[in-house]
DNA sequence: GTCTATAGCGGGATAGAC
DNA sequence: GTCTATCCCGCTATAGAC
């Protein structure tokens, strides 16, 4: 029963947005808190009031991204449809998320293998664990769908744990080459996502060739 | 007709190797020259004797990676075979390169969208231009092969320029999850590469489904 | 709750010994 | 050609005003 109703975030969300934008541009080590404050239109005092350290801020951006991913994925995975349709839906959902929230997506990509070797504090390690758990949960959902699809003969026989890597990699790679353009519309983004996901499901070899190689 | 025969690199190559290892672990901004020197087993004096700045060193690692890629790709592309075979060969070549020279591959991935906004010197801009040209050349070769394959009916109709992105993205993403293990053999690496490339060519939908979606 | 000012330190780059 | 010593800037984080 929080005071002042509407659960206002008290500026935290705005800071996360600004941080995502700054981190996207220069990466964790290359971004100073002053740069984040510039994007935000304030000074670092505000940021340090809401976040203990730059590392904490970064981790929170990353966690926010993974939470959004997992929620979107689970909604599709719980819905109706064949495994092939669900797989299509999950990949589309991810592609959309990446395009619509590019700065957050970019942080998630950089943060994946950021060892944070210096994340000394136990509190930070806990957040890191949360992030990794979210990622694992997402991958597990995908793996489950692929296993179902194989069992039903809808998908080619494969090692799902392995196939998930290039699938997610291809989508995450959008953060490298995709940039929103003024002429982009929801429809054009949707078409782009569809093209990519269609490729990830069907490959590029012509159908009869696909059988020849199998 | 260089003196002292055999074109010895005078330590430059060793520095590049050490730098790649350090940059792989902590990224450009997160790596200090002292860290590179530690990996190298020397002090920064040596590094600054051979390279003007940290940025120059990083750019040279990146260029070295792209040069190796392009050479490997061109060898396959020039050889005999159908477009489908060539496409298979080029992707296999890249997958091998990434696994065998993981630190260099990782630098290439980080460096792709490192704006180097502060690469003030014209000399650095020139190297950056070289790197981008090498990448574009590689992509153009792939696009050409795909166009040939489409013309011969070996590949599904698609926009080659667009399809190349997830293809290379899936391979580059190996730098995120692949780590050499003691039990790895040349054969196991080859099998892994084959699995990934096979997926990128054939997708995951079962053949009859692939026709249904088309 | 957000500002200004500053402490303290890490790291890029250079000078000069050897 | 490589090392040691050092300059100096920029950045994290904090203290204290408002």
UniProtKB/TrEMBL annotation, chains A, B:
InterPro entries: DNA-bd_HTH_TetR-type_CS, Homeodomain-like_sf, HTH-type_TetR-like_transc_reg, HTH_TetR, KstR2_TetR_C, Tet_transcr_reg_TetR-rel_C_sf. GO terms for molecular function: DNA-binding transcription factor activity; transcription cis-regulatory region binding. Keywords: DNA-binding, Transcription, Transcription regulation. This is HTH tetR-type domain-containing protein. Residues 32-51 bind DNA. It holds the Pfam family TetR_N. It comes from the Bacteria. Signal peptide: none annotated. Residues 9-69 form the HTH tetR-type domain. The keyword Transcription regulation applies.
């Amino acid at each position: 029963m929080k005071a002042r109703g509407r659960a206002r975030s008290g500026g935290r969300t705005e800071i996360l947005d600004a941080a995502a934008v700054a981190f996207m541009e220069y990466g964790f080590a290359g971004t100073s808190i002053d740069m984040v404050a510039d994007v935000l239109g304030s000074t670092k005092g505000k940021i340090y009031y809401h976040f203990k350290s730059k590392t904490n801020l970064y981790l929170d951006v990353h966690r926010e991204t993974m939470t959004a991913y997992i929620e979107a994925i689970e909604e599709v995975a719980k819905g109706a449809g064949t495994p092939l349709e669900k797989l299509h839906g999950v990949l589309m959902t991810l592609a959309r998320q990446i395009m619509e929230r590019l700065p957050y997506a970019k942080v998630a990509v950089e943060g994946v293998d950021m060892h944070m070797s210096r994340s000394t504090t136990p509190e930070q390690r806990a957040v890191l664990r949360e992030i990794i758990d979210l990622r694992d949960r997402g991958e597990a959902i995908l793996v489950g769908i692929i296993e179902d699809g194989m069992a039903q003969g809808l998908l080619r026989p494969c090692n799902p744990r392995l196939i998930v890597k290039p699938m997610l990699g291809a989508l995450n790679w959008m953060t490298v080459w995709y940039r929103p353009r003024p002429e982009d519309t929801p429809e054009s983004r949707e078409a782009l996502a569809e093209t990519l996901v269609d490729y990830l499901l069907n490959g590029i070899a012509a159908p009869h060739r696909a059988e020849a190689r199998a």
